[in-house]
Design brief:
262 residues, Serine Threonine Protein Phosphatase 5, Tetratricopeptide repeat, 14 helices
């Protein structure tokens, strides 16, 4: 099953949290989880629902609702019903160990399944405001910026990346965020700002895996300015290990043709 290992790890992590609940409730949860692991989705649903009947509140209920949401989203292709269960987790207990995961699922479903980008932004913002998890929240802020790119609202995307860098200066997302910002500068015809931005980036991330793509953008800016020889030489420095050699060769050939016409 696609999510087998994920589920097993979650079960192992969550079992110790049940110390305050009855053995019967723990066994019901375990049996329901086992049914899902074995791809017996409808049986798992019925077992989790039986947990809710016996334990309408508390951590057992919170997990049952959370697992029902996962089953409906991942296994039964009913993300609308999944959201309903995830929302019930949040209504039961905003401080539940399942609440952050439930809210994250809601945001991801809105973004990737429903492609309701405006609502997805709202749901990611809720994650940031509701939970004090800096590293995770930096990832949510990155998603917000990325959604604005999907919406082709590049100015706002740039602003959202700036928020990421300001609010989460130690985030592991910052390197890729700064690369995306340079891409946006190129999209917005801000080529004059790119060399300085690139130099600052390299001073912070020497040997970055994005340096080649950044050089490609710098060379493209030179080409657009009509500085063909400089652009050609810059593109040529990428010949050894550029990620997209066919695109690079096309660029070099086109510039050669342009230079030969002059």
């Amino acid at each position: 099953m696609k999510y087998f290992f994920k589920i097993v790890i979650l079960i192992l992590l969550i079992i110790p949290l049940w110390a305050c609940d009855s053995n019967q409730g723990v066994q019901l949860i375990q049996k329901a989880n086992n049914e899902w692991i074995k791809d017996r989705n409808h049986s798992a649903v019925e077992r989790f629902k039986s947990v809710l009947k016996e334990y309408p509140s508390g951590q057992l209920a919170e997990e049952a609702l959370f697992r029902l949401g996962e089953i409906y989203h991942f296994s039964l292709n009913n993300s609308t019903q999944a959201i309903s269960y995830f929302q019930e987790v949040l209504q039961l207990n905003r401080k539940s160990p399942f609440s952050s995961g439930a809210q994250k699922y809601i945001a991801e479903i809105m973004e990737f399944s429903f492609k309701d980008y405006d609502q997805a932004i709202i749901e990611y913002q809720k994650l940031i405001y509701m939970f004090d998890e800096p590293e995770k929240n930096s990832g949510h802020q990155y998603r917000i910026a990325s959604i604005y790119i999907k919406k082709q609202n590049y100015e706002q995307a740039f602003a959202e990346f700036e928020i990421l860098l300001t609010d989460y200066p130690e985030s592991s997302q910052n390197e890729v965020a700064q690369f995306r910002m340079l891409e946006i500068m190129y999209t917005l015809n801000r080529c004059s700002d790119i060399p300085e931005y690139y130099n600052n980036f390299i001073s912070s991330y020497s040997g970055s895996k994005y340096s080649g793509e950044m050089k490609f953008i710098i060379a493209s800016c030179l080409e657009e300015k009509g500085l063909l020889k400089e652009a050609y030489n810059e593109f040529k420095t990428l010949k050894v290990d550029y990620t997209y050699p066919a695109l690079l060769n096309m660029k070099l050939e086109n510039i050669e043709k342009r230079m030969n016409k002059h």
